[in-house]
Amino acid sequence: MLEKRKFLFWFLIFCSLGFASALVYHYGLWQMMYAKDSTMISWIITVIAIASTLCIGYYAYGETASTDVMNRLWFISDAMVTLGMIGTVAGFLIMMGDGFASLDSKDSSAIQETIKTVARGMGTILITTLVGLVASLVLKLQLVIIDNEK
Hints:
Structural class: mainly alpha
Radius of gyration: 20 Å
Largest sheet: none
């Protein structure tokens, strides 16, 4: 019964993630994430999170996970936050690049281009941080459920 309970908890989380993903798609947030993240780190985080979720589901279904596997999954969940922070730093580098060094305050087209660069960098900063934190939280929730149901 415990094995089925672990899987049912995981399946509940998996279905909730599917529903949340459908809502995100419906409101166009996946497209916004693709457009705003010029580093594509948020997509890397998303793919790793999906693969890790399926791996956790495999172990929740009945396969016994070794301590080594569980440690790797915990590391992956921590790496999601790190990847989000790398995206944050990359976004700051995009935002603060060469745009301000040669900015002429009298040239309106140069100011518009600088504002576009700053906006692109801020989009990368916010998207990668959010995706990294949410992916890490969701993976940790699954891992806690799997660990505590042994």
